[in-house]
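Action item from last meeting closed. Structure (319 res):
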């Protein structure tokens, strides 16, 4: 089984990225042939500063390795080190209906927020389909917000195979139950674009401050509280043992617990959970050439696979 996922280098790693995409990907590296990449072509849809792009790309590489990506088990590379993916994007575009892309949530959100989205933003899902299909991926672990993009990749693969003959495997999205949406400090989905993120490798004091600032309702301490709608409980479920979470849940239902107490515990957990990763990260920062070596090795491996698929696709369309 081939597992593939990508992460865009557009900012620093936050709890939403980690629990939604990175942790499931790390678990899966033991269960199949894993391909994980840094989606720098995708980041270019919004990052228009060369130095920034390079810093973010390096940052994601370090963070992914620090969190446990094992380059002996997973092929780890930069998307742009396999430029064949851009040629495949063009071939796939020829069977992609405009309407399919116009219906994308991500594109519609940009349309609503920004003055004028660029063409790359509109074509984003086609490049993402090429990422997935070029490696003949079976499963794609992502957060729920990416599900629509995987469905588009499936639609494009089916259409291409139907039009030109069987070239691509049809991929499946893999969305972890329970971490569909990690809430941010304002209770909405944690996302860089909402400025409500908790970055996992920030200074511990800053993490604590951020967690203490999570928005909660104004139910008084004595009164019962609803654990099912509280972002603190959702975050606790990700980091505390199930026994500890259940204790908090039952104290919520009884009343007599203040949000401040939960936040304090949550801050401890957020720091503890990433302690080892933090140490590994320091170690990697001290040996930067190791990161270049890993990415170069990954690119070589990935490129060989990509070239084979692209050759088949070119032949199928008549090039
Ligand atoms: P952001 O929304 O901060 O820009 P990205 O879009 O770069 O994050 O997401 C990178 C990966 O992390 C994707 O697979 C996405 O589904 C996952 N992810 C991001 N935020 C969350 C969240 N709040 N809950 C679950 N998964 C998330
Ligand atoms: N669009 C994804 C995100 O924003 C990143 C990504 C690019 C990706 N190509 C991919 C994820 C292929 C999975 C498979 O998070």
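Sequence:
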């Amino acid at each position: 089984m081939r597992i593939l996922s990508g992460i865009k280098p557009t900012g620093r790693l936050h709890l939403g990225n980690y629990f939604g995409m990175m942790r499931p990907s790390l678990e899966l590296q033991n269960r199949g042939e894993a391909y994980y990449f840094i989606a720098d072509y995708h980041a270019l849809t919004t990052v228009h500063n060369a130095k920034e792009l390079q810093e973010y790309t390096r940052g994601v590489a370090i963070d992914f390795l620090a969190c446990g990506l094992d380059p002996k088990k997973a092929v780890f590379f930069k998307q742009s080190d396999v430029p064949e993916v851009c040629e495949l994007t063009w071939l796939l575009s020829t069977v992609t209906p405009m309407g399919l892309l116009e219906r994308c949530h991500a594109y519609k959100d940009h349309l609503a927020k920004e003055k004028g989205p660029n063409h790359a933003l509109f074509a984003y899902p086609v490049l993402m389909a090429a990422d997935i299909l070029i490696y003949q991926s079976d499963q794609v672990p992502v957060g729920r917000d990416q599900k629509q993009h995987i469905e588009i990749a499936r639609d494009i693969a089916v259409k291409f195979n139907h039009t030109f003959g069987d070239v691509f495997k049809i991929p499946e999205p893999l969305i972890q139950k329970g971490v569909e949406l990690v809430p941010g400090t304002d209770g909405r989905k944690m996302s860089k674009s909402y400025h409500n993120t908790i970055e996992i490798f920030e200074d511990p004091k800053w993490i604590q401050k951020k967690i203490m600032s999570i928005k909660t309702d104004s139910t008084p301490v004595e009164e019962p509280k609803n654990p099912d709608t509280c972002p603190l409980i959702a975050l606790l479920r990700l980091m505390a043992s199930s026994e500890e979470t259940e204790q908090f849940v039952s104290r919520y239902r009884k009343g007599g617990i203040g949000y401040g107490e939960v936040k304090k515990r949550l801050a401890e957990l957020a720091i503890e959970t990433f302690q080892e990763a933090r140490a590994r990260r320091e170690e990697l920062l001290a040996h930067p050439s190791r990161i270049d070596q890993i990415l170069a090795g990954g690119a070589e491996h990935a490129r060989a696979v990509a070239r084979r698929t692209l050759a088949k696709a070119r032949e199928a369309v008549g090039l």
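Note appended to the action item: The longest helix spans residues 288-317.
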